[in-house]
């Protein structure tokens, strides 16, 4: 008879849990970090856990999954094949951003204005045709949340007495 998997029923945001108390970690790519209920294999052959959330959620690098028994599992974002995009002019940068948005592609905006996308040879060719420069690399991919998603735009989750309609 097999033992039931430990269940993780809560995500604790990075920085809000005792990271040094993690008994294990799980490494997931961008797609694998958007989940509600799934069996996850722990890094290093330490077995598995059942992620069992009330609704689908985006796991971020450094988040903690709180298990029923009080232990934590560290969420690690996997390195992925991505492309970093730059432009030689503001005009080209805006055109490139418009075309990427028109295709509803997930985009990570880096602090230096570089746009990061998952690598795709068709998009690479399009960007170069629009005057952009593409650098292929392997990095963590954490794109912007949508404007209407929790954590994006002005939609955020906390209780308060004011509205955002002003």
CATH topology of the largest domain: HSP40/DNAj peptide-binding domain
Number of helices: 2
CATH architecture of the largest domain: Sandwich
The CATH homology group name of the largest domain: Urease metallochaperone UreE, N-terminal domain
Broad shape? elongated
Could you give the distance between the termini? 59 Å
Rounded to the nearest angstrom, the radius of gyration is 19 Å
Our count of domains comes out at: 2
Strand-residue proportion:
35-45%
Give me the count of strands. Answer: 10
Q: Structural class, please?
A: mainly beta
Strand order of the largest sheet: 2-6-5-1-4-3
**Sequence stretches where pLDDT stays below 50 over 5 or more residues:** 152-166
| CATH class annotation of the largest domain | Mainly Beta
- Relative helix content: 10-25%
Secondary-structure element series: EEEEEEEHEEHE
Overall pLDDT: 89
Largest sheet: 6 strands, mixed
Considering the chains and any ligands shown, give keywords for the structure.
166 residues, six-stranded mixed beta sheet, disordered C terminus, HSP40/DNAj peptide-binding domain, Alpha-Beta Plaits, mainly beta, four-stranded antiparallel beta sheet
Structure description:
The chain has two domains: 71 residues, HSP40/DNAj peptide-binding domain (Sandwich); 62 residues, UreE, C-terminal domain (Alpha-Beta Plaits, 2-Layer Sandwich). The protein has two helices and ten strands, in the order βββββββαββαβ. The chain is elongated. The N and C termini lie far apart (59 Å).
């Amino acid at each position: 008879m097999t033992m039931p998997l430990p269940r993780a029923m809560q995500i604790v945001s990075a920085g809000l849990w005792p990271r040094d108390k993690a008994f294990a970690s799980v490494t997931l790519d961008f797609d694998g970090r958007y989940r509600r209920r799934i069996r996850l294999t722990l890094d290093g052959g330490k077995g598995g856990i059942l992620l069992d959330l009330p609704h689908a959620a985006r796991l971020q690098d450094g988040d903690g999954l709180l298990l029923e028994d009080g232990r934590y599992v560290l969420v690690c974002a996997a390195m992925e094949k991505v492309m970093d995009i730059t432009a030689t002019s503001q005009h080209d940068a805006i055109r490139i951003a418009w075309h990427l948005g028109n295709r509803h592609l997930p985009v990570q905006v880096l602090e230096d204005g570089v746009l990061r996308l998952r690598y795709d040879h068709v998009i690479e060719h399009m960007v170069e045709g629009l005057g952009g420069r593409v650098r292929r690399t392997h990095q963590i991919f954490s794109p912007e949340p949508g404007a209407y998603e929790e954590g994006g735009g002005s939609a955020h989750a906390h209780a308060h007495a004011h509205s955002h309609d002003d």
